[in-house]
Amino acid sequence: MKQFCEKAWDIFNSDRKQSKLISLIFYILFVLILCAGYYFASKPYLSFNFFINSGEFIRVIEILPALVLIISACIFFIPDKIEGLTHLYWMLFTLLSAIPILVVYVFSGIAYNKNVLIYIYTIEILCIIGMYLVSKFDIKFPDLSLRKKYFWMFMILFIIVAYGYLFITLGLPKNIKLAFTGDYYTVRLNYRNSVNLFGDYFVQWMGNVVNPFLLTYFIYKKKYKFMTIPIFLEVILYIYTAYKSLFLILILAPFFGLVLNKGINKSFIQKSIVGVVLIALVDGIVSVGKQFHMFNSKPLSLLNHYPSYYWVYLPIMVRAFLWPSLIALEYYDFFWMYPKVKLSHSVLRHFFSNVYKMEPSLYLGALYYGKPEMRLNVTWYGDAYMNFGIIAMIVFALILYFILFAIKYVEKKNVCLVASLLFGGIVTLFNGPLLTTLLTGGLGIGLFLAYLLPKDI
């Protein structure tokens, strides 16, 4: 068992360089799997707007230069061994957004006659510039580190204020049975109806930033008997909200922090992603065949006993890789024709009027899917275009570059603990607006705490 664990860890910790040709093959294979994934989604998920429109060959020619550029940037600008959040972010952004949006456009052709190529190429170029800047430059920021004693005094006070405010405004957590017996939507509805703005901030900040940091710190320092403290604090938040993502962040933040502390091979990420989407594709193919009675011959009839109905395909291939890019194209499709939102749904709503009289995510959910409750959240570039167009995409990208440079600077203190502070915000950034992620998602407060983090912690 010990030898097995050592070999498994070598996958993360190996210093061996992967040849650029092998890396290129993995990216090409990834693109082909996504293409097959979209093709099979067009049958069971037409309600998700997974249409296939004619003209695929022309659209392939249109996006081929962008695909070549983005893959080349990944191969040359992202180091073979990733030891920080900034390179990891651009690696995952490429795999989760920059490449999938090209695949989705080829098949769907959405906004084909609306200059959508300007939108797509802007995304790819901004991604490439971001990778290049992070790989070649550093910015030195003022040192704001606190002494260890004062840092922990501040953290304890922050926790007391946050949970005290929640107890005062929401009462003591009582819906324990509802939260843990499957009636999640009732709990979430009660929470949304009763929580105020600052209460929601404290829930997100504690759940996405502080509690994962505490758990990582206790693991990092081998103070295992204190691990129950952040877990208990997270359970309190879950009883209020029934947000399962709270536990996901709590588990993954220490994992990624400890892995980045040792360094993770780019090749491992490539192999893992390709392996996961390949498993999802196989699950989707078999599920489609089973649902639409395609396994009539005797050898294939055994597949009718396959237990899954898109259990892997739906959450991974559709929801994680393809649908977010489809939503981003739908945002462009709508706001290319109609007035921009101009931050009228944000904290600046008092300065701008919202012509749509409701949140954009709800409005587009109703328009494109007939279900406003779907809340079509979009990542930072879609949100930027929705507000002010292509210019805003460039401005928001500059803000993102600055944030990533700040992260690159502070993670030199202790990449493990800094990663645990920022992981929740970085995850939110993949499917949420930049400004919202900074404030509500906890990226801003996480970066602030990372700056206060003592160097000798």
From TrEMBL:
<feature type="transmembrane region" description="Helical">
    <location>
        <begin position="118"/>
        <end position="139"/>
    </location>
</feature>
<feature type="transmembrane region" description="Helical">
    <location>
        <begin position="232"/>
        <end position="256"/>
    </location>
</feature>
<feature type="transmembrane region" description="Helical">
    <location>
        <begin position="90"/>
        <end position="112"/>
    </location>
</feature>
<protein>
    <recommendedName>
        <fullName>Oligosaccharide repeat unit polymerase</fullName>
    </recommendedName>
</protein>
<keyword id="KW-0812">Transmembrane</keyword>
<feature type="transmembrane region" description="Helical">
    <location>
        <begin position="414"/>
        <end position="430"/>
    </location>
</feature>
<feature type="transmembrane region" description="Helical">
    <location>
        <begin position="60"/>
        <end position="78"/>
    </location>
</feature>
<feature type="transmembrane region" description="Helical">
    <location>
        <begin position="384"/>
        <end position="407"/>
    </location>
</feature>
<feature type="transmembrane region" description="Helical">
    <location>
        <begin position="21"/>
        <end position="40"/>
    </location>
</feature>
<feature type="transmembrane region" description="Helical">
    <location>
        <begin position="436"/>
        <end position="453"/>
    </location>
</feature>
<feature type="transmembrane region" description="Helical">
    <location>
        <begin position="310"/>
        <end position="332"/>
    </location>
</feature>
<keyword id="KW-1133">Transmembrane helix</keyword>
<feature type="transmembrane region" description="Helical">
    <location>
        <begin position="268"/>
        <end position="289"/>
    </location>
</feature>
<feature type="transmembrane region" description="Helical">
    <location>
        <begin position="201"/>
        <end position="220"/>
    </location>
</feature>
<feature type="transmembrane region" description="Helical">
    <location>
        <begin position="151"/>
        <end position="172"/>
    </location>
</feature>
<keyword id="KW-0472">Membrane</keyword>
